[in-house]
Specification:
single chain, 2 helices, five-stranded mixed beta sheet, alpha+beta
């Protein structure tokens, strides 16, 4: 069975982020939730990608083509050390994710467009672990019954 376009886009996001190395080398990218208690120090920074919400509509009343706008949450975790600043490390992770995703806004020709719409950081209350949550919105089209 062929994966839906939505799933293919999610896979493309994961594969894109797995190759991120500048300014931060991403060590682990997962579609499953990451529990910081279950991973080693060497697996930071890490990213969890999940589908958040989606809006859909018909492209026209007489067509089987539909449009979808799906939001993905990209949750990044960093671990600081004594020589670094948690805010600086979070910002570097955000920049890494943004640079990788911006390089192909059509997600390997699966999407019409994509963009980061929101970035939220934690307050550093779990120091030395820092967290960023990025909302990534992808617009795509598909034929009814194929997603």
């Amino acid at each position: 069975m062929t994966a839906s376009i939505r799933e293919q886009i999610a896979t493309d996001i994961v594969e894109t982020l797995e190759s991120a190395v500048d300014p931060v080398a991403i060590k682990l990218v997962s579609r499953n939730p990451i529990n910081s208690a279950d991973i080693s120090i060497e697996q930071y920074p890490c990213i969890f990608v999940r589908t958040s919400s989606e809006d859909r509509d018909d492209a026209s009343s007489s067509s089987s083509t539909r449009h979808g706008v799906v939001d993905f949450e990209i949750i990044g975790l960093i671990r600081t050390n004594a020589n670094s600043n948690i805010d600086t490390d979070r910002n570097a992770l955000i920049q890494t994710i943004e640079d990788k995703l911006e390089a192909d806004r059509q997600r390997n020709s699966l999407a019409l467009n994509s963009t980061i719409t929101n970035v939220v950081t934690d307050e550093g209350d779990q120091h030395p672990i820092g967290r960023v949550t990025i909302n990534y919105r992808v617009q795509y089209k598909y034929t009814r019954g194929t997603t």
